[in-house]
Amino acid sequence: MPFEAKAYRVLIASPGDVGDERLVIPEVINEWNAVSAFRAKSILMPVRWETHTYPAMGDRPQAIINEQIVKDCDLLVGIFWTRIGTQTGVSVSGTAEEIEQFVAQKKPVMLYFSQTPVDPEKLDIDQFKVMREFRDKMRRSGLTESYAGTADFRQKFVRQLSFNVDNLLSLAQKPTRPASRPSSDAKAGPAALSPSAAFLGKEAIATRDQVSDYVVKAIQSTAAEDGWANIAAVGQYLSTYTPIKYKLLGYETLKSFLVSTKLVELKAEKKSPRAQTLDSASVRLIVK
What we know:
Blueprint: E1 6-13, H1 19-40, E2 42-47, H2 49-52, H3 61-70, E3 75-80, H4 94-104, E4 109-114, H5 125-141, E5 145-147, H6 150-173, H7 195-200, H8 208-222, E6 229-230, H9 231-241, H10 251-260, E7 264-268, E8 281-285
Parallel strand pairs: 1-2, 1-3, 3-4, 4-5
Antiparallel strand pairs: 6-8, 7-8
Helix pairs in contact: 1-6, 8-9
């Protein structure tokens, strides 16, 4: 029986050395459609330059690709291994330009970097160097994921795609309404709860041990080489890849919870009179 559904385009962006992963993504998207499309009244459409572009003249190649497919997509999945791709005249590669365009438009981007071993004889050192520079730039700008092999990529992408699509659908369905002033007898919001209660909630979306595991993974995934991770990036990872919606809680609650786990240490840079701001705080796992 037919049903009405919104279609969301998922752009698959990568250089040419991750062919297996490029095949996995449409498979996972089709699995999501089979399980969730009717319930969510939404369908995901994988978009690739191989299947969705057509010959055209009058501009540089990547600009034409941007016009034909990139600008209308809703979610981007980017995958890198050892290569970055070919310079476009605007960016270090077509894939990088697509990602930068998405970021500029504040559209969701899922970036994956393979840690699969590579034959040194087949490694293009110049490509690998530029790819690493781009990877480090992206890690400073947001959240990325690493994986070891196609099976690991599939496992992570299945779970993380669901989180991202849920966020995408929630934003699309969120009603717009004017802000209202809280009444004088209103109950205290989430920030007034204890750290454990605020994160676990009345619905018990996760146990305290599970939340601690989420925190460790979030810090490991967003930390710089010295082990310190921006607390905003940690919170964003929790919100994107786990059931924890930290944005509903605020910085102070997140900070209190992190301290209560006794797993981490925190620091705040004195950049301004408002030193205890979310952007200036960092967190690091305590090595025991």
